[in-house]
Every structure is written in C-alpha cells, then in structure tokens.
Design goal:
heterodimer; A: 154 residues; alpha+beta; Alpha-D-Glucose-1,6-Bisphosphate, Chain A, domain 4; 4 helices; 8 strands; B: 104 residues; Arc Repressor Mutant, subunit A; 3-stranded antiparallel beta sheet; 3 strands
Chain lengths: 154, 104
C-alpha cells in the first residue's frame, strides 16, 4: 500500500512538516479535527475539553490499561473553518516541550483535500526527542493494546 | 575518544555534510577531499575520522593511498529514524479517513 503521509524534518532545524492528502472533502477533514467525538475515535484519546475558537483551549487524556494517564493540551490561537487551526501542543511530562502548530486545510477537488501540519519546537533537540517518541511511547501503546487483547482472551 | 559516535551528531556539522556530498559520487583520498575545503587539513582529517567512526565512511587502502568511500547503508539508517514517527501519523490519518468516509 502506498504511504500517503510525508514527514519533512530537516537536519538541525527546530521544526517539522507533516503533509497528507485525503480522499475526503475539506469540510469532512476539518470536521474530524473539531468534533470531539470524532477526534476521540481517530486519535484514540478522551477529549476532556475542545474549544475551537480564538482564546480557546483543549485537553485530551489517554489512560493505558495500567492506569497511567497521558495528557495532551494546548491553547487555541485561531480557527478559520475549513482553512486553518493555529494552536500550541504539549504532551505533558514529555521531554520535548511545547510546540506551536499551524494546521492548514486545503481543498484539492470536491472529494479530495490536503492537510499540512507545521510544528515549531523550542529547539532542534526538542524536535528530535519528539521524533524518537514512537520508539518508546508508540511501542508501549502497541504492547499495551496487545496485553488488553490477551487479557480479554483469558 | 568516544568509542561509538552518534550518527546524528556526525551529520549535524555542515563541513561533514559537504564531505558526504562530495564522496557520494566518488572515492577520494584525504588530501583530495581537503583540497575542496578552505579549512586546515588537520580539521578535515578530524571530520573524516568522526565520519569513519560512525560508519558513514569506509576506508580502503589502495597501494600507498588511503581512499574514503561513502557508506549508503548507514545513511539509510538515518532516513529510517523518521519512519516510525511517520507511520504513527499514517495510522492516525488512515483511521481519520476511514471514519470520515462513513460520515458522507
């Protein structure tokens, strides 16, 4: 299967760019970012707060099977329907600090759209710590899911 | 001396990146590499040493001369560093796409 998500992380820089084209109208792509119950499904997290407006904020929480809580939160700087979300992002208690995120939603055709996510970190070192995340956290999550499935089999 | 150097530390330096670009298409001696840079020869030697220690370059003795080769396998490891992160987003976005397709 062709991989549609591209990540550009230039060496020594403190930002990264994620792009993805979707077989979805831009309105549906945008909706997936602003409707709490939809965010919960694809991010695999609980949405405790999501205020999609200027001066708003958000708080997501994920609890793994061991009961460990992971919180993701930020301030929402600006929201333009079907176009832009500007917000901060923080994976609490992680070594990569707070990021500034520019999300651009772009209509390609009536049924296709493109998301461009530009994240700016405090430093190149902070960014590289985030890039390492799937090695530790991601693998743990997969492991926990596996554990959950195995537990259900018992 | 570090026994094992970090590849990312190695490619963080602009001169070392220029050396890798130079050697991508041909093998060269230390002298020939140094002649491409304004920096002092011992500085270039130091860079070559670091690149060799982290296996981005390989040395080969040809007669009296030592040639440096580029090691593409090691470079591939650097590209693969981003891969798990990219896969994490690929999974999320695939999920997003399939959920939203049902909403149509």
């Amino acid at each position: 299967m062709e991989l549609k998500t591209k990540v550009i992380a230039e060496d020594g820089k403190q930002d990264l760019l994620i792009t993805r084209e979707f077989e979805l109208p831009v309105e549906l792509l945008f909706k997936a970012y602003v409707e709490p119950e939809i965010v919960e499904q694809w991010m695999g997290t609980k949405v405790l707060k999501l205020e999609n407006q200027k001066y708003g904020g958000y708080l997501f929480e994920t609890i793994d099977p061991k009961g460990n809580k992971y919180r993701f939160s930020g301030a929402i700087h600006d929201v333009v329907s079907n176009q832009t979300i500007i917000r901060t992002f923080e994976f609490e208690n992680m070594p990569f600090g707070v990021q500034l995120e520019f999300l651009e939603f772009e209509k390609l055709t009536d049924n296709t759209s493109k998301l461009t996510m530009h994240s700016i970190y405090q430093s190149a070192a902070h960014r590289n710590e985030n890039l390492k995340l799937p090695f530790s956290y991601g693998i743990n999550v997969a492991h926990n899911r596996l554990q959950e499935i195995v537990n259900n089999l018992k | 001396m570090n026994l094992r150097r970090d590849v990312f530390q190695a490619i963080a330096d602009p001169t070392r990146r220029a050396i890798l670009v130079l050697l991508a298409s041909q093998s060269m001696t230390a002298g020939a590499i140094a002649s491409n840079f304004d920096t002092a020869r011992p500085t270039v030697s130091k860079h070559l040493q670091i690149l060799t220690e982290c296996e981005l370059l390989k040395q080969e003795q040809q007669g009296r001369e030592m040639y440096y080769h580029f090691n593409p396998e090691k470079m591939k490891e650097i590209a693969e560093f981003i891969e798990p992160f990219r896969n994490m987003w690929e999974d999320r976005f695939n999920k997003l796409e399939s959920i939203m397709k049902k909403q149509k």
